[in-house]
Amino acid sequence: MTTDLMPNRYRPGETALPEREAALIARRDAVLGASYRLQYRTPVHVVRGEGMWLYDPDGRAYLDFYNNVPSLGHCHPEITAAMADQAARISANTRYLEPRLVDYAERLVATFPKAMDRVVFTCTGSESNDLALRIARHVSGHEGVIVSSYAYHGTSAAVAEVSPNLGDAVRLSPSVRMIDLPGPAGVPAGEAQAHFTAQVTAAIHDLDRRGIGVAALLFDSIFSSDGVWIDPPGFIAGGVDAVRTAGGLVIADEVQPGFGRTGAHMWGFERHGIVPDLATLGKPMGNGFPIGAVVGRRDPMESFGQTARYSNTFAGNTVGIAAADAVLTVLQRDDIPGQATRIGARLRDGIGALANRHEMLRAVRQAGLFIGVDIGTSDSPAQQRRRMALDVVNGMRDEGVLISTTGANEDTLKIRPPLVCQPDHVDRFIETLDRVLGRVSNER
Q: What cofactor is this protein dependent on (predicted)?
């Protein structure tokens, strides 16, 4: 496992930069906290975005195949107009009686299974997961949280403690138990559910023995930070049942797989045929405007709400609701999940064809417009695989296409374009990846 907190980043002195960018980085370093990182060996200097594209000050276009924050594309005109119109009227909070909040809440919960009929708004996915953990601990009376071994669930103190992805310097809570996924462990698909169930059951047993008990199983249903381990559908079901039997809640982190990203379903957990107790939403919800939510079953929501306050000044503000409402309108009206299915299949097939010519493409995993591609042959050292993946990512960046890496070893390409991706974007991506793979391979 890599110990670098962000392998795909700019390191001063490694890359010669034009004076304009070097001066801006110097000013940035002089005023921003040291926790900030710039992505790519040569940082991308952006001044505007439109649809699938980002533009630098010289007008050079970068095809964005990484960014799920503007889920419907950068600066979507319909969403931008909805935000501007609402901002020109009023930006109010949820303590005032305001109909648009209720209208959107009704529309949002209607996209979930009927059992999940309550929503509380937040500003970010981190806040959503933080609140979901508070609810789970209140309802269960326990503290233990079960997560995958390289999970990321946010940046607040509470969720950083359940996010092994943040690195060894960020201490995990003593009440956290990490489980190994069947895919990275090399478990065959036919044994995946049994493996996952056994891992969860063992974690529950250990938490009980230590007097902690299990409050929640918290998972991202495509396990994106672990390397996009999405199959076989349903492999998490036994673990879900085990947690509920032990008195814990099931929390589906939908910040990355939600809002039609997986194509066939609006919500990632639906691929697995389960209904969680709580689902947490974030980044794509407002197409970049900070808004999130926890959607869940009535009983835990009411139990928590009757005994604890949750008042978040900006959560559910009317400008955020206007943005989220416009996002949902476009998603449903334009059948964006269906488009993600079709374009995702084209992207998967294109990468599959490249795998027949480039042996460094080891495996491809795909659900809708979320794809993980393992780099390096199975017998190559972990450090070499990671370096090759970073070479590919930065080679793509140099040719004007943006992707990144994921997984415990950061040797999996993370390909996650906005959901408005079209066939010509896919074709350009495949052509560029083909060239970069050939060049990286020849340089070794």
A: pyridoxal 5'-phosphate
